[in-house]
Amino acid sequence: MIFNKDTAEKTAELLLQINAIKLNPENPFTWASGWKSPIYCDNRLILSFPSIRNYVRDEFAKNIEKQFGKPDVIAGVATGAIGVGILVAESLGLPFVYVRPEPKKHGRQNQVEGFLQKGQNVVVVEDLISTGKSSLMAVEALRSEGANIKGMAAIFTYGFGVAEENFKEANIDLFTLSNYENLLSLAVQKQYITEDQQSTLLEWSESPSTWGQE
């Protein structure tokens, strides 16, 4: 669910402007999972544009507090959400921790890095939601440390049905600055893509795991 429509449209436009999101229905990308995709999203580019990262920081800080109440800790999911998570925590004057994909194999073998006390209220910040699997693994790592997860806030989601099911099963509320639906609407309006290309992009979202396969 998006925080609000105005933010969703503005965020989508900014991501397109800096090529954090690329749309190429005619020459699809291949994701690490092997899926063929007409869209590629790299929200880490936001950090290289001060005015845009400040916008993302401010929208996150304002809407997180409005939606979840002020938490005790902000947690970022490594590695894509560490940078923006720190910005949000700084804006809210809160401690920050981050969650590795798996525990370190040496030293203290931490998966959650930073100081976290049992029972603290945590909002998790993520850069991108596809199936939600890796994001929810971070939630479980925080829960295993005794954290009370208030919810998750992400920059962008593809809006896959499987992600919605995964978050529902994990009992986690997810809110995003923007999503696929608002992105496509804005992209047609601003002539980043044609209506025919929009149709192709909509087809992909219906069955992303099999799209483009013969």
Fraction of helical residues: 40-55%
Individual helix count: 7
Structural class: alpha/beta
Shape: globular
Describe this structure in words.
The longest helix is centred in the N-terminal third of the chain and has 19 residues, at 50-68. This protein has a 6-stranded mixed β-sheet with strand order 7-6-5-8-9-10, with helices on both faces. Strands 1-4 form a two-stranded antiparallel ribbon. A two-stranded antiparallel ribbon has the order 2-3. Helix 3 (82-92) links the parallel strand 5 (73-77) and strand 6. 41% of the residues lie in helices and 21% in strands. Helix 1 packs across helix 6 and helix 2 (50-68) packs across helix 3 (82-92). The model has no long low-confidence stretch (mean pLDDT 94). It has helices spanning 5-17, 50-68, 82-92, 133-144, 161-170, 180-189, 195-206, and strands at residues 21-23, 29-30, 36-37, 39-41, 73-77, 96-99, 112-113, 121-129, 148-157, 174-179. With 214 residues, the chain is of the alpha/beta class. The protein is built from 7 helices and 10 strands.
Provide key terms for this protein:
alpha/beta, two-stranded antiparallel sheet, 214 residues, 7 helices, six-stranded mixed beta sheet, 10 strands
